[in-house]
Each structure stands twice: as C-alpha cells, then as structure tokens.
Design a protein that fits this description.
With 155 residues, the protein is mainly alpha-helical. It has six helices and four strands, in the order ααββααβαβα. 50% of the residues lie in helices and 6% in strands.
Length: 155
C-alpha cells in the first residue's frame, strides 16, 4: 500500500520509523495473539478497505505522505508483536532457550531486534538464506536427522 514493489519489503521496514501510531492504534485491537504462537487478524478484504479509507494506495514513485508512513509504521508494529509472540511460544513449547528462526520474516531486522529484547533467548540463529526459498535447507536437515535416526550432533 506504500508503493514499493514486491521484493523491496526492507524499504517499508525503513519507512516505518518515520510513521506515527495513529493507524496502528486503530488496527491493534483486531490482532489476537495465541499462546501457541499463532495469531488472528482481520480478513484481507476488511484490511484493504481500512487502508483505502485511511489513505489511497501510493503508486510507484508517487508522493509519500505522512499517512503512508503511518501505514508502514502500523505494519511493522503488528509484525513486531506477532514475531515476539512466536518467539516466546517457541521457547515455551519446546522448553529450550535457543531458537532457530527462518522464513521471509526472518529478514526483518527490526522485528528480530524487538523480539530478542523482549524474549531474551540464550541464542538464536537465522540461516544465511532465511527467506521462503531457504526452507530447502531446513528440509535437508530434517531429512538428515530422520536418516540418522535422530543421532545428529546436538548443540
């Protein structure tokens, strides 16, 4: 909604620091975090409607308004809460204090920093290719563990 093409999500993360919490305060009550790390948020159509009513979609290279910055802020703040909750749930459910984190959101350094400060795992690891295509690495490790009968070195 802030006018950056797919693959440039980092720009939205950077833009968020210039936003204000006006839209986030409106959206936050729609977020329900669960102890198992899952969450519920409004459906896509309702979310798009709220965004369109708040500010028109910015076209690529179009004018960046304060409201567009507020959209970025709201998105980042909601992601921060989801990631913090997921990290906490992972540690609670496993009983472990070390965390491996992968997937597209693992590239969000702002959310990672906030989650680390809130949850304080003993250690966390983000693989070198944490994005969605990087899941192949996890599949290989899972397969190797299965073939080895669960006897891979533990760290």
């Amino acid at each position: 909604h802030v006018g950056f093409p797919q693959g440039e999500e980092g720009k939205t993360m950077g833009l968020a620091q210039y936003g204000e919490p006006e839209l986030f305060d409106r959206l936050k009550p729609e977020l329900c975090l669960h102890e198992d790390g899952s969450f519920r948020f409004m459906d896509d159509d309702k979310f798009k409607q709220i965004l369109e009513e708040y500010v028109p979609r910015r076209q690529l290279k179009g004018e960046m308004t304060q409201r567009h910055m507020n959209v970025a802020y709201a998105g980042q703040a909601i992601i921060d809460l989801i990631v913090i909750n997921a990290w906490q749930a992972a540690l609670n459910l496993t009983g472990k204090r070390k965390l491996v984190y992968a997937g597209g959101l693992a590239l969000n350094s702002v959310a990672n920093d906030k989650a680390y400060r809130a949850v304080r795992p003993d250690a966390f690891y983000i693989p070198p290719s944490p994005g969605d295509p990087g899941h192949a690495l996890g599949c290989v490790l899972f397969g190797a563990n299965e073939i080895a009968g669960g006897r891979l070195p533990q760290t």
